Amino acid sequence: MFIPLVLFIIILYEISQHDQQLSKLSNQGTCYKILGTSHNRFVLFKFRDMFFHHFPFMVMNIKILYLDQVNESVLMSEEIVYYLKYYAAKCSTTMEIGNGNMAHTKAEFEIDLSVSPNVRYFTKYRFFMTEIHTDIVLQMSDFFKFADMFLKFKTNSTNVVFKPPRGFDWSIISNPKVKIKKIQCLAMMFYNRKIIFHYMKTIKIYRNYSDAVLMYIKVYNNSGEKMDQMLHEIELTGYRFPCYSIDNKFVIHPYIYLDPALTNIMIEFVITDIFYQHREKESLIVNHLSVILGQKTEIGFKYIKFLYYHFRRFQMRNLHTDMTNIRFLPLFKYSVRINKCHAINKVNYF
């Protein structure tokens, strides 16, 4: 069984003529400040299909590969990290990219966004740049349709990108002591999936919490000789946020799809606080889609709907059970069909 994975190709949009670009930016999106610098520097994003207003902070990892324009040989590479914090709903400037001193060179950019250092990215951008001949602002789309990023390409810049000083203390923004109420919401991401989990704490434990979280969902066999054998596992990344800030209440109803051949399984949800490293767990026994609460449960999820995945039925159902729906979360092994894209005489794929 093949489930197609849509490859989101990076698209470049010219915002306007240069004399109108800066004024246009102020109405485009959400502004993030680059931390650890002596001057105010910002990156502008335009979130798409968002399930809440903005992320509190992000880590941007920029990898640049410099290639000879003639023979495509690698000249050098570098990696820069920006620590971004939400600054304002609007701003009139954004990240700059220049020619630097790299004449007759092609630069390949790969930019990842993640919730914390050393955690898998939740989306990425990829593009090539040759020599810049005119100042221009471009809008980049990401792989998984989370946020367009605005970049300002400048002809007179001596640097390719700004390089902040090393040694920034990431814990300054990643470990606030978040006040946790009995009912909590998590905005979690898994490839192009954007899922709100709504849960309640069943045990009163006084702890410090930070905003960024990992969620592991593990599926175990719950019957026969291979009982307790792990069948599948996925990892999601995301943020805590107040449930009252959800724009659309319907998005707190995630669909989790199971393999119909597995009729008696245990599903374990583990929420890991990225900074403080403590964990909260819930285990569920799912027998023919009947759900029973497992043992040693500290939290209880609400509104989750378990369904069996039947390939042919999916082609006939509405958008709520469509594979492309952002709230569809498959908890089974499946094959991925990769669509290759030929760009600049080079095969690109994800």
TrEMBL record:
Keyword terms of this UniProt record: Signal
Signal sequence segment: 1-17
UniProt keyword Signal, yes or no: yes
Highest taxon of source: Eukaryota
Protein name from the UniProt record: Uncharacterized protein
Species annotation: Thelohanellus kitauei
